[in-house]
Write a structure and sequence with these properties.
heterotrimer, A alpha/beta, B mainly alpha, C mainly alpha, B: 2 strands, C: mainly alpha, ABC transporter involved in vitamin B12 uptake, BtuC, two-stranded antiparallel ribbon, disordered C terminus
Chain lengths: 235, 287, 342
């Protein structure tokens, strides 16, 4: 059995007085693509933000490659090899396309990803490299956001709602590119509202409901009924 | 010819005001911080320059070698030690804390250097001049203007052409996402303040060579810098230079009408521009 | 459990006790000319005027979110109006002070129209520029002594009261009335619909906006009213000093720095804060005055530490500890002693 690259134990998270996560236990194996599904407000984004270091969590609640990272800042977590593609893309508007990618490569970890490799994956970005990132279409912006995360050559990449607000044809393009991204041994966690998209690329799935894990299992072994029960909480 | 002379001298004076303003503009751009102690930090730099020239017996311009790194270090320490704690959605903490720092600096300088006006001795540079088309230009004001242009060009280059500038812009855009890129915002802000105070060091030295100074004049320098920033348009460094020049020209023309009107004329021009163009003359075009 | 077990109340037992103590203290203070010495009365007068300035600045910064470092503009304007109106228009000093409030309100309207174009921290520095403009303008008026200033003529001083002790008592009572009047006015304003709206804005601008509260108009009103009252306090300050000069009248240290420190240390955004802060400020000043500039160093450092570590100041600390509110503003729900029926 391979060691999980990441696991959380009893993970809790708060926004001021509001508790968003109630003791989430989860593990991501080396090289696997994990999907996290759940309704709006189930805590999916909070979970990714916690892993990436953007929330305050207990030090031992999150371990990456056996090392506790729950209390680290996001920049420290990033340096260890975790990258987040945030919900809503969140490119830097003051930076050009290429500058957005370059700043993603500030953390220079060894690996296959470079400016050239990203341009090869998304050739349109090379054409638009000197444009303001805000001038791109939504799909192109999403490509920049993914490329920006890849530039640091992370061992674990977190995707938060990458299909949100994009046209189906664009979503297909982006999902078609995923195997090329995670094929090289990189582990990935994909958060999606679109269940079928998430299941199509992942080997295992967790369902979150009101800040707790309501279902967990291999993608092929879980029935639709179990998923909708876990998703909506109907018995 | 008198009027032309006033305009030219005012333009050169604007170089000094642009130096006052550049640091203010930089830290506002990166972290939306308005530092009320900025003027007192300029005066602190002037005193550090004075002490360096006296202690080492060097020319004030050579003192830059000591004062620039010293002010940069003070800036970094100030930001990481105190100012980072004040940043957030609430406007009050940074304002009141920098206001407190301003009062502390003023009184600490009083304690160490007394209230007596001081001046740095720059030798021949203070009086040297040359003729240009019937006008007499002092080398010192001309040098100040050239340095101001160089400083702003340098800041512009750092901001738009270097990884450090990229980090500044990214952190200014979105602190959380910048943190995801491995940028520690506390450190980035520290570097921004260090750079701002390095510029402040240059401003302080040119101030101290040009005129006499005492611990109480910081507020006035803050105001000149602030006026230059607003006249030029927020977030536009070259606009800041233009703002400094407009302020300088207004003051010299005011002084020509009546010596008591020098400062008032500058303020009035500032208020007029605020009334007519609240975003300044050259606001940065929104991307 | 039923709803009748709850009661909604505005006043608290502590507030009633405080009010009672307040009445006793006020009575003693009103009687001061009969029991206090000349120096004590001067000190108390100064304390009252600072309390008035602090309460006004707190109303702006702590409730309306208008952080001004230029209120010396209106202190000085009020002082100069007292001198000008008594010397050139022959008005009685008290009438002149009242009129200076009206003038300051009129002046503050265009000033606010300009300064409100500046956002947040830049507004703060803008107010300072404005104060500088006022200072430079008054330094140009030679009839008022130009840059060196002037003294209030003896016959005007004598018009207040014939005897020296009468004048001292009167100016003491005026200072006391100013402090009590400002605190009461701020309190009543904050209890009013507009005042509660303002507090709502401070606590949540988004929510207040959605309630249809006109944020800008409320802030504008606060700025103008504060300017008027600050100018009247300024008139009283220079009625005590009997001498005015541009540097003294528009001093950023005397009329803004100290006032800000008082409010921050006492507790910004509370009515009690400026009162506590004024008491602390004068206690520190009377004990540390010999230290000169060191005293200001200490004051600045204390203000910074309070801002960073206890942003609600001394009063905020006390209030959190003991759940006290001496000037009840909002309504509170009183929970039943014991839950019945479950």
């Amino acid at each position: 059995m391979p060691e999980p690259i990441l696991n959380t134990r009893g993970l809790t998270a708060f926004y001021k007085d509001f508790q968003a996560l109630y003791g989430v236990d989860l593990s991501v194996d080396q090289g696997e693509v994990l999907a996290i599904i759940g309704a709006n407000g189930a805590g999916k984004s909070t979970l990714l933000r916690s892993i990436a270091g953007l929330m305050r969590n207990g030090a031992d609640q999150i371990a990456f490659k056996g090392q506790p990272i729950g209390a680290l800042r996001a920049d420290q977590v990033a340096a260890l090899g975790i990258a987040l593609v945030p919900e809503g893309r969140q490119l830097f508007p003051s930076l050009s396309v290429e500058e957005n990618l370059l700043i993603g490569g500030r953390i220079k970890r060894p690996g296959p990803w470079s400016l050239e490799a990203v341009y090869k994956l998304f050739p349109i970005l090379k054409e638009r490299r000197n444009q303001a990132s805000t001038s791109l279409s939504g799909g192109q912006q999403q490509m920049v956001a993914i490329g920006r995360a890849l530039m640091s050559n992370p061992d674990l990449i977190l995707f938060d709602e990458i299909s949100l607000g994009l046209a189906p044809i664009i979503i297909k393009d982006i999902y078609d590119a995923l195997p090329g991204i995670v094929g090289g041994g990189m582990s990935a966690v994909i958060v999606e509202q679109d269940i079928s998209k998430a299941l199509s690329v992942s080997s295992r799935v967790y369902c979150l409901q009101e800040g707790r894990v309501s279902l967990e299992g291999a993608t092929g072994e879980i029935s639709r009924e179990a998923i909708s029960r876990a998703y909506f909480g109907v018995e | 010819m008198d009027w032309l002379n006033a305009i030219v001298q005012g333009t050169l004076l604007g170089g000094l005001y642009a130096l006052f303003a550049a640091g203010l503009s930089l830290i506002f751009g990166v972290m939306r911080l308005v530092n009320i102690a900025h003027g007192d930090l300029i005066v602190l730099a002037a005193y550090l320059g004075l002490t360096t020239t006296v202690a080492l017996g060097v020319h004030p311009l050579l003192a830059l070698i000591v004062v620039v790194p010293a002010m940069a270090a003070i800036g970094y320490a100030l930001q990481r030690g105190i100012l980072n704690q004040t940043l957030g959605d609430d406007l009050l903490p940074p304002l009141l804390v920098t206001f407190g720092i301003s009062v502390i600096l003023q009184n600490a300088l009083l304690e160490v250097y007394t209230a007596d006006p001081q001046k740095m001795n720059a030798g021949a540079l203070e009086t040297a001049s040359f003729d240009l088309g019937g006008l007499t230009l002092g080398w010192l004001p001309v040098l100040t203007m050239l340095v101001a242009i160089a400083v702003i060009a340098g800041l512009q280059w750092v901001f738009y052409r270097t990884p450090l500038g990229r980090a500044f812009r990214a952190t200014s855009d979105n602190q959380d996402i910048a943190q995801l890129m491995g940028l520690n915002k506390a450190h980035v802000f520290g570097l921004a303040m260090a750079l701002a105070l390095a510029v402040t060091a240059i401003a302080g030295l040119f101030l101290g060579i040009r005129t006499s100074f005492d611990p109480s004049i910081g507020g006035g320098r803050l105001i000149f810098g602030f006026e230059a920033v607003i006249i030029g348009g927020l977030g536009n460094l070259w606009g800041t230079l233009a703002g400094g020049v407009i302020l300088g020209v207004a003051q010299t023309i005011g002084a020509k009408i009546d010596p008591g009107w020098q400062l008032l004329a500058g303020h009035i021009v500032f208020l007029l521009i605020l009334a007519v163009r609240p975003n300044g003359l050259f606001p940065r075009v929104a991307a | 459990m039923n709803l009748n077990d709850y009661s909604v109340t505005r006043t608290t037992r502590e507030a009633r006790i405080a009010a009672l103590i307040g009445v006793v203290v006020m009575a003693a203070l009103i009687a001061a000319p009969w029991w206090a010495g000349r120096a004590d009365m001067r000190l108390l007068s100064e304390l009252f005027l600072y309390l008035a300035l602090a309460s006004l600045w707190n109303l702006m910064a702590g409730y309306a979110g208008l952080v001004s470092v230029g209120q010396q503009a209106f202190v000085g304007l009020g002082g100069y109006m007292l001198f000008a109106l008594t010397m050139f228009a022959g008005l009685h000093p008290i009438v002149a002070i009242g009129l200076s409030g009206v003038i300051a309100a009129a002046v503050s309207i265009p000033v606010a129209a300009l300064l409100f174009r500046l956002r947040g921290a830049y507004f703060a520095i803008g107010t300072w520029v404005m104060a500088e403009v006022f200072r430079l303008v008054f330094a140009q008026i030679s009839a008022l002594g130009g840059g060196s200033g002037s003294s209030l003529p003896v016959d005007i001083v004598k018009s207040l009261a014939a005897s020296r002790s009468g004048r001292e008592a009167l100016s003491y009572w005026l200072a006391l009335a100013a402090a009590a009047g400002v605190v009461a006015a701020v309190y009543l304003f904050l209890r009013s619909r507009k005042g509660l709206a303002l507090t709502a804005i401070r606590d949540n601008e988004l929510a207040a906006g959605s309630l249809g509260i006109d944020i800008l108009r409320a802030k504008f009103l606060v700025y103008v009213v504060t300017a008027a009252m600050t100018a009247m306090v300024g008139g009283l300050i220079f009625l005590q000093k009997l001498r005015i000069s541009p540097d003294a009248a528009f001093s950023v240290n005397d009329w803004t720095a100290f006032v800000i420190f008082i409010v921050v240390i006492g507790g910004i955004g509370t009515i009690e804060g400026p009162i506590i802060g004024t008491l602390i400020f004068f206690a520190l000043r009377e004990t540390l005055a010999d230290l000169g500039t060191t005293y200001l160093l200490v004051l600045g450092a204390v203000a910074i530490v309070v801002m960073l570590k206890a942003p609600k100041g001394v009063w905020g600390f006390i209030r959190n500890r003991f759940d006290l509110q001496l000037f009840p503003l909002g309504f509170r729900v009183r929970f039943p002693e014991k839950r019945k029926g479950d």
